[in-house]
Amino acid sequence: xxxxxxxxxxxxxxxxxxxxxxxxxxxxxxxxxxxxxxxxxxxxxxxxxxxxxxxxxxxxxxxxxxxxx
Length: 69
Hints:
The protein has a 3-stranded antiparallel sheet. The chain has 69 residues and is an alpha+beta fold. The protein contains 3 helices and 3 strands; from the N terminus they run βααββα.
């Protein structure tokens, strides 16, 4: 596995709102999807962070790139 030191390992809900959904879903909806287990998170103190692998998979699917697990 190659780790890119310039790329974050986790994203905040605000970052995912802008980067993945580009404002098409509200932050409230994203939080609801997190509570439903549709978006994976890691808790750090009181903050929920979304793993970069999930963001990468969503962006790849949006661009029509096949994701191999």
